[in-house]
């Protein structure tokens, strides 16, 4: 992927300095920073989802069956999934 990023002179100098300190070409250093940020974002999203599911599960009455839970999940997903139109 090729990308052009407009940075302030101050940030450009800082990144170049950091890349030199890491003994990496600036392009590879920027790719490394972006990859790490995306990994953190993904990990946070997974943790948030896990916490949300735990909170939701703790509010479910004990007599609720697995089938009822699955049906409720499907119903909830139907409301949040985008409606797709498969016509060309």
Structure at a glance:
The chain is an all-alpha fold and 88 residues long.
Question: How many structural domains does the protein architecture include?
Answer: 1
Strand residues, percent = under 5%
What's the helix count?
A: 3
- The helix content, as a percent range, equals 55-70%
Choose one word for the global shape: elongated
What structural class do you assign from the helix and strand content? mainly alpha
> Rg, please?
22 Å
Mean pLDDT: 88
Distance between the termini: 29 Å
Major β-sheet annotation: none
Oligomer: single chain
- Uncertain runs are none
Order of helices and strands: HHH
| Tally of strands | 0
């Amino acid at each position: 992927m090729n990308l052009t990023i407009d940075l302030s002179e101050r940030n450009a100098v800082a990144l170049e300095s950091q890349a030199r300190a890491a003994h990496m070409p600036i392009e590879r250093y920027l790719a490394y920073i972006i990859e790490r940020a995306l990994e953190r974002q993904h990990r946070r999203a997974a943790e948030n989802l896990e916490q949300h599911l735990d909170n939701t599960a703790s509010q479910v009455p004990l007599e609720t069956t697995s089938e009822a839970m699955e049906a409720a999940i499907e119903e909830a997903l139907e409301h949040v999934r985008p409606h797709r139109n498969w016509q060309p």
